[in-house]
Design goal:
Helix 3 packs across helix 5. The radius of gyration is 24 Å and the shape is globular. The protein has 16 helices and 21 strands. Helix content is 33%, strand content 21%. The protein folds into three domains: 86 residues, MurE/MurF, N-terminal domain (Udp-n-acetylmuramoylalanyl-d-glutamate--2,6- Diaminopimelate Ligase, Chain: A, domain 1, 3-Layer(aba) Sandwich), CATH 3.40.1390; 210 residues, UDP-N-acetylmuramoyl-L-alanine:D-glutamate ligase, CATH 3.40.1190.10; 135 residues, Mur ligase, C-terminal domain (Protein-Tyrosine Phosphatase, Chain A).
Length: 459
């Protein structure tokens, strides 16, 4: 983590006050939450819509913070404690991260995309950790606050940092990319997430391609080459980039030639710039695409092919992403409740349909959010896509997911499709239907909190 004197911090954030009395105070790490302050942290109080962090500055100091920032337009700064006055505390946090990143001898990999950002980040970290000292985004700390905090928590001897970059509107990825200044940038894919804000997949592609803005000339850009929206737009770039693509098509630099779905892993073969047989301890054809992106990044940083194999074998994904757990009755539950879009929902369903060796297969699907004007149609088409020959029962939760149920009922018998607006009622009914050796997929957008269904099945 960042470890600097208060004088150095003052210079890095452009402090406005005189701190002669406190210049030698040593700061270690940064916190924006007074409840999570650690010894010698710099506390950064933020002005939020609901809470003003400046109210907790003195509490943060009492809990061990070495110093705090203070926004210039907030009245009554406390006396006799180490404070740095800044014009804007949020901007100061970002500028501190920008300066710290510039002081480190570190290779940075930026990862964005509609789906698979976190999985690709985890896979890339696993591959590179076989050879380098790696630091990566924790959880989903991928926005204008999370990314600076991730940079500032980076140990000084970090050799490679893998930074996830999320967005909801245009300009956000450009901002994050220019802050992180990646040496390698990855776009996993273009899906339907953020249609509500951006209006079209073309606009989503343009927003994701903003990650190039922070790349220096000669930087490496890795992208999903089977997506025409990316392939077409990258041709109009202004920068001189080293471009690498991945996908299923033979036109890509790295492509998959076969995939074998196993009950607890996925095996695949590749051709192109990396030729071989690989296996990842996670489920889903879509995760093979994420693995290809990670493999290209590892190759770019000269990780040995044997180490790539080793890193893939030890991949561990962030919770609630195709996470296999066991229920109280011995049923197998795939917890994919962190997020959902039509693309990822379809991929997860196809995965379940392709698995064998289970007594029955059950889908528990919730609302996919932020899909804009076509949201009902997207849900209906998911229901129509489900194979009645491969899936035994479908449970849905939420007003939009009711359209999934409606689509499924076009081919399923009525007594195999259940739709709920009450989560506890869904759980009670689901428990009556499950038994040992059933396979259950639980998937929805994060706001639906369907991990509660997974937790209930484990009791």
């Amino acid at each position: 983590m960042i470890n600097r004197t208060l004088k150095q911090i003052h210079e890095m954030v452009g402090g406005l006050n005189v701190i002669a009395e406190w210049e030698s105070v040593q700061v270690a790490g940064v916190s924006i939450d007074s409840r999570k302050v650690e010894q010698n942290n710099l506390f950064v109080p933020l002005l939020g819509e609901q809470v003003d962090g400046h109210k907790y500055v003195e509490k943060a100091i009492q809990q061990g913070a070495a110093a705090s920032l203070w926004q210039q337009n907030v009245p009554n700064p406390p006396k006799d404690i180490p404070l740095i006055i800044v014009k804007d505390t949020e901007v100061a946090l970002q500028e501190l991260a920008r300066a710290y990143r510039g002081q480190l001898n570190v290779k940075v990999i930026g990862v964005t995309g509609s789906n698979g950002k976190t999985t690709t980040k985890d896979m890339t970290a696993s591959l590179l950790a076989t050879t380098y000292k790696v630091h990566k985004t924790s959880g989903n700390f991928n926005n204008h606050l999370g990314l600076p905090l991730t940079i500032l928590s980076m140990p000084k001897d970090t050799e490679v940092a893998i930074l996830e970059m999320g967005m909801s509107s245009r300009g956000e990825i450009e901002f994050l990319s220019k802050l992180a200044r990646p040496d390698i940038a990855i776009i996993t894919n273009i899906g339907e997430s953020h249609l509500l804000d951006l209006g079209s997949r073309e606009e989503i592609a343009r927003a994701k391609l903003e990650i190039i803005e922070g790349l220096a000339d000669g930087g490496t850009f890795i992208y999903y080459g089977d997506e025409p929206l990316l392939s077409e737009q990258i041709q109009n770039r202004d920068k001189d980039l080293h471009i690498q693509s991945f996908g299923r098509s033979r036109e890509n630099d790295l492509y998959v030639t076969s995939i074998e779905q196993r009950n607890d892993s996925t095996a695949y073969m590749t051709a192109g710039v990396l030729v071989g047989s690989y296996e990842i301890p996670v489920l889903g054809n879509h995760n093979v695409m994420n693995a290809l992106a990670a493999m290209l990044a590892a190759k770019e940083l000269k990780v040995d092919p044997e180490k790539i194999q080793e890193g893939l074998a030890s991949v561990r994904l962030t919770n609630m992403r195709m996470e296999m757990v066991e229920g109280a009755k011995g049923e197998k539950v795939i917890n994919d409740a962190y997020n959902a879009s039509p693309t990822s929902m379809k991929a997860a369903i196809e995965l379940i349909e392709g698995l064998s060796g289970f007594e029955r297969k059950i889908l528990v699907l919730g609302d996919m959010l932020e899909l804009g004007l076509q949201e009902q149609d997207f849900h209906l088409k998911i229901g129509q896509h489900i194979s009645k020959d491969e899936i035994d029962e479908v449970f849905t939760y939420g007003p939009l997911a009711e359209h999934i149920a409606r689509g499924a009922r076009e081919t399923f018998e009525e007594n195999r499709v259940f739709s709920f607006q009450d989560k506890q009622q869904l759980i009670q009914e689901l428990k009556r239907h499950t038994q040992a050796n059933d396979l259950i997929l639980v998937k929805a957008s994060r706001g639906m909190r369907l991990e509660e269904v997974v937790q209930a099945l484990q009791k």
